[in-house]
Amino acid sequence: MKNWFRSVHGLVPVSVRGANPERVLTLCAQQGVPCIRPQPVEDYALRFVIYPKDRTAVETLSLRCGCFPTFGEPRGFPRMRKTLRTRRFALLLLALAVSAVLLSSMFLWEIDVSGNETISTGRILRALEEIGFSEGKCWLGMKSEMLQSELLLKIPELAWVSFQIRGSRADVIVTEAIPAPEIRDPEQPVSLISNADGVIVRMTVLNGQPQVKRGDYVSRGQTLISSVAEDLQGESRPLHAMGSVRARTYWEMTAAAPLETRKKSPTGDRKTHWALQIRKKRLNFYKNSGISNEDCDTIYKMYDFAIPGVFRLPVSLTCETRTESALSAGMASADVLAQTLNETLQRRIGPDGEVLESHLTQSEQNGLLTVTLRAECEQEIGVEVPGNIPEIQEEPSTNDRTDH
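The structure corresponding to this sequence follows.
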């Protein structure tokens, strides 16, 4: 507090040289002139700090003691005020900048959504805009309780919402509701049917009436374990069939792509353009701002006028870099097609499926590169279907063709 008071009034460093410089301090104390932080410099010299108003008194007392005072440059607010007096334009710009920051902090210029996993951020932002909480809106007078209630009505999948506003930045923290588990009727009959053609290699029945055995060939849609079983009295009763059926399946898939392809190769020529973005309006600092050449790759970099986590102005500087590219001829890759086929096969047989043996063949005909995958796999083929008579939607056959 004392240092702040001294800075406001200003300070002047003084160096006194003479036969008895300490007498200057004694006379100053008698006259009521404060000498701040006195310290010896040499054998016949002292240095201390005084207020600007006491400069004349210190000079007079020093000469009376036969000493010669040397005054340094004043420090503190009076000197700063004198300097700013000659730079009124800079002071005006500083005042305008501070006013813009203070005024901008009353409006929302950045909204960050966190905590969502299944609900998209775009959907939450659109709902916020519908309830009046969007970029460019003044947040003064907004009540978080009202915003929470309206947003929960717009998106019922949310369980909890929190609004945290710091200056021109708003953090919307959401918590998604846990969906209710699916309730199954234990008395509803469920059969286990096959979802692929194959030969059964292993079968485990936990509940239900098996309709096939190990070594049988089954087709897609055939019942493996029935939901109808007979008791000791010979009466049929419905139940939930459970079990595991693994079979050896055979797959044949084909992928094709044009032999000749065209790809972009950068030529090294680059052009950089700058633009000023003020909310939704753009001010270009260059000409010919129409549609760019198709052979150009454009990269945009945005530089916001903001301090992260503190405030943000609705102004940004855009750097647009365009790199010239040339089209060059290329050849289709059989490895890429083979990788696509292998990934597709793994999705078809499931995560617990195993590829026992596979073969790849390729051919070129009519300008197409064709790769064919033939594989022998072992996978789980049983799926649960409610009811006694299963109905399965048609899926692509094992002779699949993928065009690229």
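The first strand starts at residue 12 and ends at 17.
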